[in-house]
Design goal:
The protein is 54% helix and 13% strand. It has 194 residues and is of the alpha/beta class.
């Protein structure tokens, strides 16, 4: 399972991601968080902020997320992920269940929060190609969950993500049961025919 949190810098992706992580750990799930800032400092250290470098960074995160998910972990990714086409490609190529969570906060709210002072620097022209200011953020068209962090507290947003996750897991479990039943019927019909 991969849960991908997308949104502007300062929208609350990492905060929400950590809240979801805590709840999943309480119920016994094995969880790993891939934070975009931390991945960029380690796995993607040589990349800049051109469109191509941003896409490459996201594809590297996706690759690691798939490896972890394949080995039974719930992977939480908190990354701005500004380009819709890239997010859609990640969803399309995911080899496990995938949830896209749009952590939505208006630009002015993100600028007010500005925990790292990045918006101020971008407005001063010190950071070129800054998402939301001088580089686009393309909101998801059909995210699985939208968390309105301007009006919802962390617990409310976390509950929405967990509810959608539980719904997806229930549907996945039902599909697996139906597939098993259908395979059993097919096997029985072959045995009867022989």
């Amino acid at each position: 399972m991969i849960i991908w949190f997308t949104g502007l810098s300062g929208a609350g992706k990492s905060t929400l991601c950590r809240a979801v992580e805590k709840e999943l750990q309480k119920r016994g799930d094995r969880v790993e968080v891939l934070d975009g800032d931390q991945v960029r400092q380690n796995l993607s250290k040589g990349l800049g902020f051109s469109k191509q470098d941003r896409i490459e960074n996201l594809m590297r995160i996706h690759y690691v997320a798939q490896l972890l998910s394949r080995n039974g972990l719930v992977v939480l990714v908190a990354a701005i992920s500004p380009y819709r086409e890239t997010r859609e490609e990640i969803r399309r190529t995911a080899r496990s269940e995938f949830l896209e969570v749009y952590v939505k906060a208006p630009l002015h709210v993100c600028e007010q929060r500005d925990p790292k002072g990045l918006y101020r620097q971008a407005r001063q022209g010190l950071i070129p190609a800054f998402t939301g200011i001088s580089d686009p953020y393309e909101p998801p068209l059909n995210p699985d969950v939208v968390c309105y962090t301007e009006t919802e507290d962390v617990d409310e947003s976390c509950a929405k993500v967990l509810a959608r996750l539980n719904d997806l897991l229930r549907k996945s479990s039902n599909r697996a049961e139906n597939d098993g039943t259908n395979k059993m019927r097919l096997s029985n019909s072959r045995a009867t025919a022989e």
